[in-house]
Specification:
Blueprint lengths: L11 E5 L3 E5 L6 E7 L2 E7 L4
Antiparallel strand pairs: 1-2, 2-3, 3-4
């Protein structure tokens, strides 16, 4: 599991499908989506805006 790029806390897995994995920080609620493309993964971060 990746560490949060915003606060450094370990992120938890929020959702997983065959096409992507979503991680969410329990402290600052930053969300990262890791897209799966065949054998490779592409990670895309997106902070939540409240």
């Amino acid at each position: 599991m990746p560490d949060c790029p915003r606060c450094g806390t370990r992120m938890s897995m929020d959702d997983e499908t065959t096409k992507l994995v979503e991680y969410r920080c329990t402290v600052c609620h930053t969300r990262e989506v890791e897209h799966r493309t065949g054998s490779q993964s592409l990670r895309q971060g997106s902070p939540d805006v409240a």
